[in-house]
Amino acid sequence: MSGVRGFPEEFQTPGIIRKSEGIMKWLQFLKPAESIDYHRTKSIIDQSGSDDIIILDVRQPGEYEQSHIPGALLIPLPELPDRLAEIDPDKPTLVY
């Protein structure tokens, strides 16, 4: 996969949320993930085209309605296992 400018290299390969042959790699949720601050997040979003990354909001709908990153996909965390098909497994994913 071609790299996404500004996106950490470790997340450009099968990462936090990836599917393999239709099966979620649950082990990824058990490993620590790198946290990035607001400035790095904004830089990644600004440098990447909207078609190059997925911004996944896992909060509740009320929180999303109050404020969210433009273009973010809302999938509340409890619904995530049932809605994995909505996430492109070939794109890096920012989750908040």
Write the layout of secondary structure elements.
Elements: E1 19-20, E2 23-24, H1 27-30, H2 38-47, E3 54-57, H3 61-66, E4 73-74, E5 93-95
Parallel strand pairs: 3-4, 3-5
Antiparallel strand pairs: 1-2
Question: What gap, in angstroms, lies between the N and C termini?
Answer: 23 Å
Helix fraction bin: 10-25%
Q: Please work out how many helical segments DSSP would assign.
A: 3
**How does the major sheet shape up?**
3 strands, parallel
Q: What is the helix/strand order? A: EEHHEHEE
Sum up the overall morphology in one term.
globular
Strand order of the largest sheet: 4-3-5
Structural class: alpha/beta
The total of beta strands comes to 5
Structure overview:
The protein has helices at 27-30, 38-47, 61-66; strands spanning 19-20, 23-24, 54-57, 73-74, 93-95. The model is unreliable at 10-24 (pLDDT under 50). The protein has a single domain, classed as Rhodanese-like domain (Oxidized Rhodanese, domain 1), CATH 3.40.250. The protein has 96 residues and is of the alpha/beta class.
Q: Which characteristics define this entry?
A:
3 helices, three-stranded parallel sheet, 5 strands, Oxidized Rhodanese, domain 1, 96 residues, two-stranded antiparallel sheet, alpha/beta
In short:
The protein is α/β, with parallel strands linked by helices and 96 residues long. It is 21% helix and 14% strand.
